[in-house]
């Protein structure tokens, strides 16, 4: 259709196929007005009003996010993003391009009609577009959630014809545009199912049908009680040790001394401590995500207790790389990231506020505090040359969609350290940090990236903070970083979708 096409033009001015289609559309509307829709009088008008301005879908997305499952949260975000794109398209292009009058309400029973009639043009249906966009976006990320949302979306679309505010073709066109918006969002931001994991080395690990020999240490400070109980229900012979954060390291060592498989439930810092214990005792590790971010578990492909229990029961495991650092008497391992410069200070500031205002808000405030503090660049010697740096990031494996915070890894056994540096200058580069928060650092001329399997830094001032997997320590003089290829065996369902 050409822009500004008026669907109410006289028959003599329209093409015969268009006249035929409009006539059929009108007859379908008349038929729908005469149908008896059992039980719809109390439901559909309210549902139609509830979907105004996307309020219904925001509520559904909030309920999905409250499920505390990573896939549910991702599906909610994707659904809202698809809805936003569809609404933008409908309101700026769709309704402005086709000026179709709303149907006459005469054949529609009074009990069905909306108390407040819409004043915009009829084609296409914005409600149907929003419903289809949200439901399709959700389904592309999580088919299970999509199946739950689909009946509600269909009912919203049907309610627009039922209440007499749209012709059937308005609804069909809106639904098609909404679904198209969801697929466009998927093309721009692929779902986890689309991002194929690289083949990971499979490992021999004990199969524990009821969890006998598995000892799981759970950090009570991470709020893991529900997940630990669910894991114990799935693996009734597993031993569960719940402890305070300050006792985690000691309990992990005790557990490793008597376990066939060492398990851990907590955030990335707790998992880091468990990985160290598993390496020292030569044990496979079972990771149940229980913290705020859980980068390692999610990149591994373990999102909940059901996936972990299935892997432990069947002995399904893979080998993953471990990063190691050493500076004087200080040494440790990292499964996710290590960094020097302003980021360790940001971690300290974030941890000081996260228990009061939440992790994301605390991170924003921490970044603002670090920027306002007027810090000087970190001075290091790398490759025989002294370099001022605001930030040195080292990832255990190559990260994708890298910004101020790390993105996602698809290969945990690639043998590489992902090294990224933000060059120093006379004052903090607010523009650079703002760009980093919004997109990949690799787009900035002040940023450098390289992948290596070892790195040596010297000339580091005493007391320089170093962050690794959310923990912070201090280093001085020389820091040596290396990769331990396929050093750790970790349970993971081999058919899990990342």
- Give the helix proportion (percent range): 40-55%
How does the major sheet shape up? 10 strands, antiparallel
- The succession of helices and strands, N to C, reads HHHHHHHEEHEHEHEHHEEEHHEEEHEEE
Shape: elongated
**Extended strand count:** 14
Distance between the termini: 42 Å
The fraction of residues assigned to DSSP E strands is: 15-25%
Rg of Cα set: 28 Å
Low-pLDDT parts are: 1-7, 434-440
Structural class: alpha+beta
Q: Number of helix segments?
A: 15
Mean pLDDT: 81
Give me a quick take on this structure.
The chain is of the alpha+beta class.
Question: Can you walk me through this structure?
Answer:
The protein is α+β, with helices and mostly antiparallel strands and 498 residues long. 43% of the residues lie in helices and 23% in strands. It has helices at 16-34, 40-50, 55-65, 70-97, 126-141, 143-162, 168-188, 225-234, 248-258, 268-281, 295-300, 305-314, 342-357, 359-372, 430-438, and strands spanning 202-204, 214-219, 239-243, 261-266, 285-289, 316-327, 330-334, 337-341, 378-382, 385-396, 417-423, 447-452, 454-468, 471-491. Strands 1, 6, 7, 8, 9, 10, 11, 12, 13 and 14 form a ten-stranded antiparallel β-sheet that branches. It has a four-stranded parallel β-sheet with strand order 3-2-4-5, with helices on both faces. α5 packs antiparallel against α6 (143-162). The longest helix is centred in the N-terminal third of the chain and has 28 residues, at 70-97.
